[in-house]
Amino acid sequence: MSTSPQTRMPLAGVRVADLGTVWAGAYVTKLLADMGAEVIKVEAPINFDLIRGLNIDAGGEYYDTSPYFNTYNRNKHGVGLDVGQPDGLAVFKRLVQVSDVVVENFRTDVSEKLSFHYNALRQANPSIIMLSMQAYGRSGPHRNYAGYGPMSEYGAGLTSMSGYVGGEPQKVGISYGDPLAGVVAAGNEYLVRAHRPDSLRRRYVLAELLPVGVVILCRIDADRFRRVRIANAHGNRNQRLHRLPLFVRVAVPDVRVDRQIQLLAERSGRRCLSRCGSAAQREQEQREQHRLHGTSAAK
Prior knowledge:
The chain is α/β, with parallel strands linked by helices. It has helices at 24-34, 67-72, 86-97, 108-113, 118-124, 149-156, 177-195, 209-215, 218-226, 255-268, 279-292; strands at residues 15-19, 38-43, 76-80, 101-104, 129-132, 204-206. It has two domains: 15-226, Crotonobetainyl-coa:carnitine coa-transferase, domain 1 (Rossmann fold, 3-Layer(aba) Sandwich), CATH 3.40.50; 243-299, no CATH class. The protein contains eleven helices and six strands. Strand 1, helix 1 and strand 2 form a beta-alpha-beta unit. It is elongated and about 75 Å long.
C-alpha cells in the first residue's frame, strides 16, 4: 500500500542505530520510532538491556515478557551484537555507515573505551547525528559516574519539595528524569535533522539527566538564587494559595456522592459548596468561605 504525503510519518526513511538502555535511552528511540524512524536496537547477547529482566513471567522466553521493556522498545528491530569485541565493533560501524542517527547512554568512560564517541563514529559516517545521554555530561569531576532518573530528582532538588511539612524529603512517584531527558533528546534530534545545513560541521546532541532536572525547576531555583523564597515540602497545599480552604471537586453526577460530600463536610467542620444550586448561589457560598477564612475571593 502506497503512503500519501499527508500520511507520511515525520521521520520516515530515517535509520537509527540504538545503543540506548533502561528508560532514558530506550524512551528517546521509542519516540523516534513512533514518528516513523527505523530503529535498530543493538544489545550484547550476554549483556542485554537490564530491563528485560524486570517484572518477567517465569519460564519460556522470559526475556521477551517484561512489560517495562516491551513498552519502551516497541516499533524497533533488534540485533544481538557484542560491540566490546573487535568483530562486533566492526559490524556496528558498518551499521553506522548506513544510519542517520546513533543514540547511546553509556557512562562516558565506557563510550570512550568502546570508541562510541562522536569523533570516532563520524569517521565511519561524516553526516551521522549522535545523541548522547550521560547522567553528568562528558566533562567535569562526575563525568564517569553512572546515574538514573532518580538521581536527577535528588540533584535538582525536586525531592526536597516532595512530602509533608517538616518531614523527610521524598521521591516522587516515577523517575521523571528519564522520560524528560528522552523527550529533550528526541526533540533536539528532530530539530537537528529538520534545520541542519549541509555545511554544519558537528551534529552532536548531549542531553544530560541532571541539567534536565534543573530546567524543570528553573522558576523555583531562580527564587532560591534571588533569596526570595526557599521551596520546601508542603504536602498538598499550594504555596501561593495556602490560606485558601481546601476544595474537592467531584465530577460524578450521582446523588449518593452529593450526600457523601455533605457528610464529609459535616464531620470535618467545613461548609459544603453545593454543585446543584445556581451559579449565583455557588458564588455566594464561595464568598462566604473566603470570608470565614480571612481571604479575598479571586477576581
